[in-house]
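Q: Sequence in, structure out?
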Amino acid sequence: MINAIPSYDMGLTNWGAIELGLYFIVIGYYILLFFYFILKFRTSKKMYWIYFAGVTLALAIGRIFFMLYYFFLPDPAASVENPIGSPVTGELLLTVYRLATFFTWMGIASAMGVLGILLLPTPVDKEREIKEESKIKQDLVVFFNNDKRRLIVRGILILIPIIVGISVLLLNNELFLDPDYNIAYQMGYDQSAYLIGKTPGGRFLNNFVFSPLLVFLIPLMFFYLAWKTFGVLRKSYALNGLGFLLYFAGRIFQGVFDTMGWPHMEATIPPLLIIASLLILAIANNVEQLK
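A: Exactly. Output:
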C-alpha cells in the first residue's frame, strides 16, 4: 500500500518568502495578459493573439508547477546529509518538475507560432503595408509564396518545442531526477550512466542545449522584424524582442544565482526581470496596427 505523503511546514526563509510572493505576482500578470490577448482575438479574429494567449497560459501553468516543486512539496527536513524524505514525495517532485518543464515548452511552442505568422505572413494580410511586406519577405518570397509551404514551415516551428516537451514527460526518470533528491528522498535510482558532469543528461540538454537555442532565436527574430520595418511596427517588434529577452534572462539568472549560492539575488532579480518582461510585452502589443 502506498504511504500517504507526509505533511510538514514549508520551512521558508525570509528570502524564500519574498521570492514566493514575487512569483505569485508573476502568475497574476500571466493571467491578466491571457485574458487581454483573448479579448484582442475576439475583436480581430487573428490567430496571432491566440498564440500569444497560449504563451501566457502555458507559462502560468508551468510557473505554478515550478512553485510546487521549489516551495510547497519539498520536505525541509530531508537533505543529502539527512536522507529521511519519503520516496513517494520524491516521485511526486519528479513528476511535477516534468510537468513544469513540459508547459514551459508549450509556451515556447506558442511563441514560435507567433513568429511563424510574423515571419511568413499570408499575401491576403491587408494590415501590413506593401513596403513592409516586401522588406520582411524579400529573401524568402520566391520559396514561401505558396500557402502549403508556409503552413508546413509554421507547423515545423511549433512542432519542435512540442517534441522536446513531450520527450521530457516520456524519457527515463534518471535523465531528469535531481541527484540530491535521489539521495534525500531515498529513491534508489542509479544515475551514474546518465550524468553529464553532476547534471542529469536530460536536464543538461534541456537547460544548456535546447533552451539556449530558442532563448536567443525568439528575441533575435523579433529584433530582425524590427530592423526590417519602421514606425509603430518597429517599436512593437523591438519591445516584443526585449520582453522575451528579459523573460529568458530571468530564467537563466535563476539558475546562475542558485548555483552561486546567492539566495538574496535569486529571490529578487529573476522574478523582477520576468515581471518587467510581461509589462513590456503588454506595452508592445497595445498598438493600433496589431488589432
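The first strand starts at residue 195 and ends at 196.
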